[in-house]
Amino acid sequence: MQVNISTRHGHLSPASQETITEKVSKLTRLFERITGVEVTIDLEHTEKPEVELRVSAERTEDFVATDKAESLLAALDSTIHKMEQQLRKHKEKLKAHRPKGSQQPTDAETNFEG
């Protein structure tokens, strides 16, 4: 997975970039088909930085989440939370569309005596 970090109206320290990369890399635990992540940080309003997260995945449209907060890390955490919700919802949608033959039988179906 490739992570690109860009900033508008300011600069980030290498330590901040490393922290952002570590946090964003954890998204692959939810959805293994992620191919790239773009993080855009807007520092125009220093009292409320804005973070935009764009996740590219195989066989689907890009996922986008944005948020503003009092600090950069708070905005990042909130944006990652929104992205996690989108990825979970998409993964559930994929599971719901599987053909009947590929689903595992449930305990109730295997223990049925009739």
Summarize the topology:
Blueprint: E1 2-8, H1 14-25, E2 34-42, E3 50-57, E4 63-68, H2 72-96, H3 107-110
Parallel strand pairs: 1-2
Antiparallel strand pairs: 2-3, 3-4
Subunit structure: Associates exclusively with 100S ribosomes, which are dimers of 70S ribosomes.
Organism: Blastopirellula marina
Keywords: Translation regulation
- Proportion in β-strands: 25-35%
| Main beta-sheet strand count, sense and barrel state | 4 strands, mixed
Q: Determine the CATH topology.
A: Double Stranded RNA Binding Domain
- How many DSSP-defined strands? 4
Low-confidence stretches: none
Shape: elongated
User: Could you tell me the mean pLDDT?
Assistant: 89
- Share of helix, binned: 25-40%
- The end-to-end distance, rounded to whole angstroms, is 50 Å
Task: Calculate Rg over CA atoms.
Answer: 19 Å
- Helix-strand pattern: EHEEEHH
Overall CATH class: Alpha Beta
Strand order of the largest sheet: 1-2-3-4
What's the assembly state of these chains? single chain
CATH homologous superfamily label: Ribosome hibernation promotion factor-like
Number of domains: 1
Region (Disordered): 84-114
Pfam families: Ribosomal_S30AE (PF02482)
Subunit structure: Associates exclusively with 100S ribosomes, which are dimers of 70S ribosomes.
Protein name: Ribosome hibernation promoting factor
Task: Report on this structure.
The protein is of the alpha+beta class and 114 residues long. The protein has a single domain, classed as Ribosome hibernation promotion factor-like (Double Stranded RNA Binding Domain), CATH 3.30.160.100. It has three helices and four strands, in the order βαβββαα. A four-stranded mixed sheet has the order 1-2-3-4, with helices on one face. β3 and β4 form a beta hairpin. The radius of gyration is 19 Å and the shape is elongated. It starts with a strand and ends with a helix. The relative contact order is 0.15. The model has no long low-confidence stretch (mean pLDDT 89).
